[in-house]
Amino acid sequence: MEPGDGTTSSLVRQIGAVRALEQSLVATSETGVAEQLAARLSEVDPERRLDQAARCGIRFVVPGDPEWPVGLDQLDPAITKDGFGGTPPGLWVKGPMPLTELGRSVGVVGSRAASVYGVEMTRAICAHLAAAGVPVVSGGALGIDFEAHDATLRADGATVAVLACGVDRVYPAQNRRLLHHLAAEFAVVSEQPPGSAPTRLRFLARNRLIAALTAGTVIVEAALRSGALNTVGWAEAINRQVMCVPGPVTSYTSQGVNHLLREGRGTVVTGGAEVLELVAEAGEHLVEEPRGETRPRDSLTRVEQQVIEWVPVTERAQVDSIARLAGLHVRTAEGALRRMREKGFVVLDDHGWRVAPDV
């Protein structure tokens, strides 16, 4: 059985790991699954495997341990109809960073074929998160994943990679230096035991961990069939924030993200401040709504603005005409005009009122 098997996860949650294993080994002549499992288990020496891992600086964290990320427990109710998913029986971790520090972390995922736009947006968002002390979690892959990790490190932030292979392996090879650094200074995490190779199914299983370890997931770029969309699906299933960076409508790598937004399945974010506002506690990191460029007329009262709209720029107009067009009493319009003349917004001559030059 592969990690990510929802049936196993459900059994462990209901009857405990020992009884779940015993029940799985009950002979079933119809399928032979138990015999296959027993044969595989006979080749495994758990104590020896844990001892070998410890000598390599790898620890195995299980539910109930002080370091266990409780957010992973929410994966059991999200098991798919075909029995995929669930809380992992444990996590292999290499690196000094405790997983308890990921409570308010943010996942950042996206296309391996990142565009210049995607790279710029990823780096800006992750640098902002790092400056705020928010850890960044990604998958250690090429493209957006690499940029997320690298930008966080360059901003002196904390970042963790969740892998689809064993934490003692390097995949992809191009990210060797990055993954070695994370394993030495922060953490690399996997539910796959040491020595495991990456497979397509294991990448999909990995995605649910990124979603569950974090307070929300930012998706920067993704094509319509991108694996990053799978991470979003898991985030939705366990009620985590889904944050989408919109991309150009002509960009292939933004089609998946834009489609999510069109379906109302994510919140638009255009920078790190907006991400922080969504994942922070209520009242923290509030983003001030952007305002347009201020103009001198913004200082006028509502009535004065109502009047000046009907004062000619080049021609002249009498006060009664301005009052009628503004829908105000002539005395109200007269008072507003005189106040605006003192402020330099309008001028009065023998032919009537007009807007002052350069206003």
From TrEMBL:
InterPro entries: DprA, DrpA_SLOG. SUPFAM superfamilies: MCP/YpsA-like. Signal peptide: none annotated. Pfam families: DNA_processg_A. It comes from the Bacteria. Residues 60-278 form the Smf/DprA SLOG domain. This is DNA-processing protein DprA. Coiled coil: none annotated. Belongs to the DprA/Smf family.
